[in-house]
Write a structure and sequence with these properties.
This protein is α/β, with parallel strands linked by helices and 411 residues long. Helices cover 30% and strands 21% of the residues. The protein folds into 2 domains: 79 residues, Alpha-Beta Plaits (2-Layer Sandwich); 241 residues, Rossmann fold (3-Layer(aba) Sandwich).
Length: 411
């Protein structure tokens, strides 16, 4: 049986593709890629530019992961599957006192134990015995916790990148008072339009970063960026802060539990990582209590393993399209695809309030979240309304393209 490419290798495979092989790049996109490539003889440079952008995103992710693991070997390790995980840490879902005691007796040190409030889910974090890697310690802890879900704590990475600085026309954002939307990412600066609360879920948080600022600006505007959810109230959960191992599954689970307690109906998660049992449970429980995750599928290409949290059944999975409605050639995949939205040929703000070009499925997710929030509180009716709004774009756009006119084009 042919093995799927490991997450860290998926980007490497994209980097290795020559422009001439673009026809083999994205089988699931079928006719879209075929129509694009049919005009190569007449307009080769746009295709080359698209592939260059895709390779740049993939190269940046590879570089970042490898650099983090090299610089912080005591905080980050690469597991057998090729995923970046918290070094020397394992997580047990819903442990009882017997499991905790058995683990401690075998040299596992309890780091933290927490119940995630009304979600009815608990977890314990353990340090592996001295000198043992995550891969070596994992089967030992599973044997000590029969019937429990035991895993590493994988890191999640942004599904997009910011490019050059571009001028934007000044436009005042709407005052908060509309829908409540949660953002799980990095921090944003004080004065971000619509910001009503910001919570820390990592060391050094809240700390503004460019990716989170861009997502926030696509929702609530400011600095010349058009708001897709004008007047929305933002609750921001910073899961990165200054922690090299930020963006881990535990931090995202805790952040989502917080947004659920705050009765925030929509949570944007433009981050990508592997499947994790704790986060899967929390995403499902949050939706049952009225908070739905809208997640990007990432930019590792369609040959990569399914991206999470987008692939959890209870989340809405979002991909990106360019200004002509064509799926991004570097877009990752999910076990199911719900919608597409603009993910290229647009501007967003960085953490310093400057308008910059952006590209990636990250930037499509807030547009879908904005349209969903506009139709709530009844989720079933809201999803039906989105289906009616969605512009059909082929299988590679799920149930269709939303908010196609929400982008702020580069000038």
């Amino acid at each position: 049986m042919m093995r799927r490419p490991r997450p860290l290798l998926a980007a490497a495979m994209l980097l290795a593709l020559p422009a001439a092989a673009a026809a083999q790049l994205v089988p699931p996109l079928g006719g879209v890629v075929g129509r694009t490539l049919s005009g190569v003889a007449q307009t080769l440079s746009p295709v080359e530019a698209t592939l260059s952008d895709a390779r740049s995103l993939a190269r940046e992710q590879l570089r970042r992961v490898r650099d983090l693991a090299r610089r912080y070997p005591d905080r980050i390790e690469i597991d057998r599957a090729g995923d970046a995980v918290r070094a020397g840490e394992l997580v047990v879902v819903d442990p009882d006192d017997t499991v905790v005691a058995a683990a401690q007796a075998q040299g596992f040190r309890l780091i933290a134990r927490e119940d995630l409030g009304d979600l009815g889910i608990g977890y314990a974090r353990f340090r592996t015995p001295q000198g043992q890697s995550v891969d070596r310690a994992l089967p030992r802890l599973r044997a000590l916790a029969p019937g429990r879900e035991v895993s590493a704590d994988p890191l999640h990475f942004p599904g997009g990148a910011l490019g050059t600085t571009t001028l934007a026309m000044a436009a005042p954002p709407a005052a908060p008072g509309g829908a409540r939307i949660g953002l799980i990412d990095g921090g944003v600066r004080a004065g971000t339009p619509g910001l009503i609360r910001q919570q820390a879920f990592a060391a050094g948080a809240p700390q503004p970063n460019d990716h989170a600022a861009a997502i926030a600006s696509l929702l609530t505007g400011g600095g010349g960026i058009r708001a897709s959810a004008p007047g929305a109230a933002l609750l921001v959960a910073d899961v990165y802060g200054s922690d090299p191992a930020g963006g881990n599954a535990v931090a995202i689970a805790r952040a989502l539990a917080w947004l659920t307690r705050e009765q925030v109906p929509v949570a944007v998660v433009s981050l990508v990582g592997p499947a994790n049992p704790l986060l899967a449970r929390v995403v499902a429980a949050a939706r049952r209590r009225g908070t739905i995750v809208v997640a990007a599928v990432g930019n590792d290409g369609p040959a990569a393993p399914p991206a999470y949290p987008a692939s959890y059944p209870q989340a809405l999975a979002v991909t990106g399209v360019d200004a002509r409605g064509r799926p991004l050639i570097e877009a990752g995949r999910a076990t199911k695809l719900d919608y597409a939205a603009p993910g290229a040929d647009l501007l967003a703000l960085d953490r310093n309030g400057r308008a910059r070009s952006v590209r990636g499925t990250s930037f499509a997710a807030p547009f879908v979240a904005a349209r969903l929030a506009a139709h709530l509180p009844d989720l079933d009716r809201a999803l039906a309304a989105l289906d009616r709004e969605a512009q059909r774009g082929g299988r590679a756009t799920g149930r269709g393209i939303l908010c196609a006119d929400c982008r702020t084009p580069p000038r």
